[in-house]
Specification:
single chain; Rossmann fold; 8-stranded mixed beta sheet; 2 domains; binds cytidine-5'-monophosphate; alpha/beta
Amino acid sequence: MLPGKRILLIISGGIAAYKSLDLIRHLREHGAFVRCIVTESATQFVTPLSVSALSGDKVYRDLFSLTDEAEMGHIQLSRDADLVVVAPATANILAKMAQGVGDDLATTTLLATDKDIMVAPAMNVRMWEHPATQNNISILKSREVIFIGPTEGKMACGEFGEGRMAEPAGISDAIDDYFHAYAPLAGRHAIVTSGPTHEAIDPVRYIANRSSGKQGHAIASALAARGARTTLVTGPTHEPNPAGVKIVRIESAQDMLNAVLASLPADMAICAAAVADWRPEKIDDRKMKKRDHTTAASLNILENPDILRTLADSADRRPHLVVGFAAETNDIIENAVTKRDYKGCDWIIANDVSSGTNTFGSDENKVHFITENVIEDWPLLAKTGVADRLVDRITEHFKTFARAAE
Ligand code: C5P
């Protein structure tokens, strides 16, 4: 499961830090990209040079280093990973994490991350058993930090007990299990379009539609929750920003197309936006006057670019999976099947937006899932439920694709 997965490994200062070198080797052998942050005390146990040589990347260590922050700030460091692993995790770093202390690059990155965190504690048995440490562990577990080990055994200090860091192969297996279970789309890039577009007539008026963006935003959120790096290109909506998603806000269809093309390459594109089909030929730079009947009474309109079709047709840059939506008022399935062909997309989600269905703006959606080979009627579901089912299908699809590529 590790090819292409990006792991941010934080090495804190314990004697077990030497084992992290072996962990880096394991992870890279399994195809992962490993980027490392070392704490100041970790550098007493392993040299940044060895870490860098094994990870094949620059090693990050200083919060205030201008080059580090200019090239790759702590926010970027944590966002660019699929999983953050702290190994070894000392009692000190666990305490800082539990209390939200950010006094160096490692702890600030841990505060800033929107990714899951896995820790492999390593410390003396008495430090491990200390109520303060146990209390910090409970706090971190309640925040869903994943613990690997520690194991029981003879310690570097000569004592025997719980507190030894799990072996690198065990940590690597746990990371593999994590990606199987929680983040099957890690390492994949998804572009999602959502919301309406606004096509300006003059500085105050525009052509728009009733799309709320709820469905597209729910899909972006579900993709990010499965570990996909997700770019949401959205028209104006009142929906809150989904967590862990890169948001690109646009107004018009042309802007949406530009933003989508600029976000390529991607493994998948889910076009859930209700893109306006037309735009006024000319945008008045001054507010049009009611009195001025000749211009106000008629608008010359031009057809907007079809983003879904452009993506599906973009030869070498085509995302592997392109999914469209078909909002229909009648002959829903027939129209959607024809639309799948015409647009050149792989799958289409058809929904009934005839008057009375209240799909726009509502929290629920009744859809049909259409591929080359299947037409399925899904029950009435919350839009988040439609998103989860769709992302289940996407996950299955990429699993099969990955197996075929092996
Ligand atoms: O042609 P129609 O608007 O019915 O097609 C709907 C599908 O095409 C949706 O997936 C929508 O996001 C996408 N679309 C697009 N660009 C357009 C029009 C529609 O991406 N200009």
